[in-house]
Amino acid sequence: MWNVLLSFSGLVALIQLLFLPFFPESPPYLLLQKEDKAGCLKAMKQLWGEGNYNTEFDDLMKEKALTKGTKIMNVLEVLREPSVYPQLCAMLLLLLSLQLCGLKIFRTANLQESIIPYVSLGVSISELISIIFCSSIIDRFGRRMLLCGGYVLMALILVLLETSLLLSDQFLWLRYCSVILIFLFIIAYGIGP
After folding, report:
1. Signal peptide span per the entry (predicted)?
2. From start to end of 30-161, where are the E strands?
3. How many Å apart are CA 64 and CA 69, to the nearest integer?
4. At what angle do helices 174-191 and 143-166 cross, to 10 degrees?
5. Any idea where the domains of the chain sit in the sequence?
6. Cα–Cα distance for residue pair 34/40, rounded to 1 Å
7. Smallest Cα–Cα separation from 150: which of 137, 163, 162?
8. Which of 9, 120, 136, 164 could be cross-linked to 99 through a Cys-Cys bond (beta carbons 3.0 to 4.6 Å apart)?
């Protein structure tokens, strides 16, 4: 029943994709990143209803003032910072645990048992690449764009994956397309949602 479970996550992603354009951006994002005070106040009213949000707005302005002199670090600078080593270790353990991910799909695609561990390792590497890539582009494109694009890509990839798995008995080369689609799905998920 893995295909039902896979379809369920696709359905949830589709519902989120349909409703996401109707929600405003995060007020802290609008104020701190985009420096849009009017948009921040408008988003607060949309999210929390009519009211006086001067206290919350003042808190965000204080946070903005505190972070004004703070340099935004890139990926390499974060890797060199000793204070984030515990978080990095936790993330790496999570990525390494992804080696067990997809074993059922790989077996369904009738891949040789001897290459499945290597394909699982490729899944982990895809996740790591997507995390690094996403952290590099999120400030440029914004969360909404990455979420919408990620969900659209994931939906397309899931349709192609299901099709390739259904036809893999007739066309042997589709087994390897399934593996590539899983890598692409993980990258799309890491970049977007």
Report:
1. 1-17
2. none
3. 9
4. 160
5. 1-72, 76-191
6. 9
7. 137
8. 120
